[in-house]
Every structure is written in structure tokens, then in C-alpha cells.
Amino acid sequence: MKLPARGLTRDEIDQQLQQEATKDVDWKGGKLWTLVYYAGDDVAEVLGETFKSYLYTNGLGPTAFKSLKRFESEVIAMTANLLGDDNAIGNMTTGGTESILMATKAARDWARDQVPHITEPELIVPVTAHPAFDKAAHYLGVTLKRVPIRDDLRVDLDQLEAAITPNTIMLVGSAPNYPYGTIDDIPKIAGMALARGILCHVDSCLGGFFLPFMRKLGEPVPRFDFTVPGVTSISADLHKYGYSVRGTSTIMYRDGDLRRYQFFSRADWPGGLYGSPTMTGSRPGAAIAASWALMQYLGEEGYLDRVKSTMDTTRKLIEGINDIPGLTVRGEPDMAVFAFGSDDFDCYALSSAMRKRSWDIERLQRPKNLHLVVTPNHESVADQFLTDLREASDEVRDQPATESGEPAIYGALESIEDTSNVNDLILNFIDSLTRIESE
Ligand SMILES: Cc1ncc(COP(=O)(O)O)c(C=O)c1O
After folding, report:
1. Which of 4, 219, 380, 406 gives 20 to 30 Å between its CA and that of 41?
2. Which DSSP category does 380 fall into?
3. Ligand 1 centroid distance, CA of 128 (Å)
4. What is the pLDDT of residue 438?
5. Predicted confidence (pLDDT) at residue 435 exceeds the cutoff of 70
6. What CA–CA distances, in Å, run from 182 to 149, 199, 336, 393?
7. What class, spelled out in words, does domain 345-421 have in CATH?
């Protein structure tokens, strides 16, 4: 394929854009239960308009773009306040993965400087922690150890403690983890880190802009933030429950000295003095400005309203699902993210039956479960979802275990112990994504 010889008209392009969008899942209609955190047309308008007016700006040049310097500093200061320490300091990044990469880079370089006898640094994370930690460890040459969770779906503290070695530089807890929405015992994890003089990162990519408001609403929220002694860094995503545009997260540090290890500089490059706070070189100014504008627009009240309605919807869904014979919500989720499954029938067959009813529900594995990330956008569809879920459960309840089709493939993949072939499949799939299909 080549560039079109002459540019298309705006109408021609719009037509194609609209046509292609019809192939996507109906996320705006609340059919998708992951990936998108839609908080209303007014929010979209604030983001879109701000994005447009800051479209070409670049956060790599804070002296050229004093506006962005102000917006990023203020987003970080507001985030620090939400996370329990006005003196915490950080940076905006392009997402949870970059924030976690940055926390790991800071930890690695802190260890090189402060505990240089450690030549093979290790991170210890719960088995439920996001694969961004594996990615960070892989990119940065750090060893990652995963420890199991207990029956309550929070990390097993005894096993975590037993996994610590003289090479351990950082312990990690999630607030909450993605699969189950449960918060690990952060005070205990941070206490173990503090006692050994090592770092403790809290992955609050999901909860960072949700849990503080839940707490303000008087909901019981386990302690997870900088008020916990020993927590040294926290990742909190703006593009999840911060409701900002894709490509926005924060990485926060209790201590500016630790943050310095995150930075990168090059003093002798012919292109000039070069310094960059995060992973990317150029930084999307439009996303920084849009996040700032949105936080100003929503204010505490706007976030509280959305968190309240989302928690009301979550409780309705949890109750409704537990009411359907054979279905159970797993553990006691701490916020609006949770897993549910069945000990009686194949929940993957249930997700296929729901897909026929146009719902897109994610599948978890080891063990098999289904997954919901509830957002303000789901309030209006929760009743229909439950009605369809009941009907779909009735449909699959007495089905014999499927021997072919999608559930069977998933089932087979799940039972494979050596995952190297499955990894190959995943890599082949990713490889195929940017190749143009011949129709
Ligand atoms: C708990 C948690 N951490 C990290 C991430 C990674 O975030 P991103 O996809 O923005 O890189 C996610 C994404 O869902 C998450 O749920």
C-alpha cells in the first residue's frame, strides 16, 4: 500500500472513519467492560477541546512550553494531595506501564548508587501484579519474582517475606490488582521494606484516582498511599479512573532524591544538552493539558459523583451476579473491578453466550473467571446486563463441557504448564496486527 497520490477530502476521510468505527465494540453504549473509562459527553468535550488547542505542544521542552510546565506541576501536586502527601513529587507519563517502568528504573539506579554490592537486583511482586512489572524487569535487567496470593485474593505475606533475599531492592503491592480488584496489605508490605531499608512501590494505576474519593465518601478503604510508612512510590493512572485521555498516568515518589534516579541526561550530544524525565523523548503536551483541564473541570465534586454512581452500579452488579444460580463473585473486591465465575459450569461458554448478546466480557485465567471493570458509563446498562447474564447462564448451565470452539481453545491453553508455545502464539498474533490483511 502506498500513500494516496492526492489527499482525500475531509468528507471521504470522515466516511471511512465512521465506517471503520462501526466494526468496533459498542464501548460508548457500555457493552465493553475494560479498556475504556468513559465519564460522560461533557468530560469528552473538555478533553477534546483542550487536546485540539494544545495539539502540537511538546512536554519535552518546558522552557518553550511554560504552559505545560505549569499544567504538569499542578497535576502532580493535586495527585500528591490525593495520595496523602503534599510533598510527594512525580511526573506525568503515557500510561501505567511507563509509570511502572519508571519506578523500576528509579529503583534499579537507586540500588546501583546506594547498595552497589547488589549486582543482581530483584523485585518481588504478587502473582496478580500487572505484567508491566515483567516488562520493566525484562527491559531493565532486573530479576522479577512472583509470589502467590491467599484465599482472600491478596498477596500471601509469609511467602512474600520468605522470598526476600539480600538482592531484593523493591517490594510491590497492588491497590488494587487488575484481576480481582483486591488491595494487597500495603502497610505490612511497606513495613517489611522499611525494616530492610529497601523500596516499596504501590501500583495504584487503577485505584489512584478512585480510592481517595471512595474514602471521602465514607467507604471503607484499606490504607494504601503515602500515609503508610515505607511506601516510596505510587503509580496512578489518569487515563483510567482519572477519566483523562489515553496516554496519561502519573508516577509519584515520596522523596525527590529517589525520583532523580528516574531521569536521564546526556551532556555531550552535538544536538545540545539533553535531559528527559521519563521514558519517552517527546511528550504529548495535548494529553498533559487535557488532564489538567479535566481535573479543573471535574473538581473534587465531579470525581465524588462519578465514584459514588460507579460504586452503586458495582454493588448492584455484584449482588445481581451472586443471585444467579451457579455464579459467584470472587473474594471481596475493594472497588469497582472484580472477577466472577462458576464452579458448576464453564464461564468461558458464558462469555461466548454474552458475546452473542453483544456484551464484551474479558476472560481471566488460572483459574478461569470473567472480569468486569465498572465505569460511570455502565450505570444505565447494568439492569440489562444482569437480565442477559441470567438468560445466558441458563443457556450454558446444562451444556456439556465444550469440545470445540473458543472456550475449548482457551481451556486447552489454560491447562498447559510450559507456556513457551503460548507465548509464541501471542507474539505471532501481535506480529500479525500491523500487517495489512488481503480481503
Ligand atoms: C493495576 C494495573 N497496573 C498497571 C496497568 C498498566 O496500565 P497501562 O495499560 O496504562 O499501561 C494496568 C492496566 O490495566 C492495571 O490495571
Report:
1. 219
2. G
3. 12
4. 67
5. yes
6. 11, 22, 10, 25
7. alpha beta
DSSP strand pairing (233-236 vs 199-203): parallel
Report how far apart, in Å, the C-alpha atoms of 185 and of each of 73, 177, 233 are: 30, 12, 16
What's the grid cell of residue 30? 457500555
**pTM (two decimals):** 0.96
Q: Where are the domains of the chain?
A: 49-295, 345-421
Closest residue CA from atom 7 of ligand 1: 96
CATH class of 49-295: alpha beta
- For ligand 1, whether the C-beta of 72 sits within 6 Å is no
pLDDT in tens, 62-111: 899 999 999 999 999 999 999 999 999 999 999 999 999 999 999 999 99
Per residue in 305-343, pLDDT (tens digit) is 999 999 999 999 999 999 999 999 999 999 999 999 999
Q: Which atom of ligand 1 is nearest to the CA of 95?
A: 10
Task: Verify whether ligand 1 is closer than 6 Å to residue 184 (CB atom).
Answer: no
C-alpha dihedral over 210, 233, 70, 248, to 10 degrees?
-50
Beta carbon of 337 within 6 Å of any ligand 1 atom: no
Q: Show the cell assigned to 308.
A: 459514588
Residues ≥6 apart with Cβ < 8 Å to 3: none
User: In the predicted model, is pLDDT for residue 422 greater than 60?
Assistant: yes
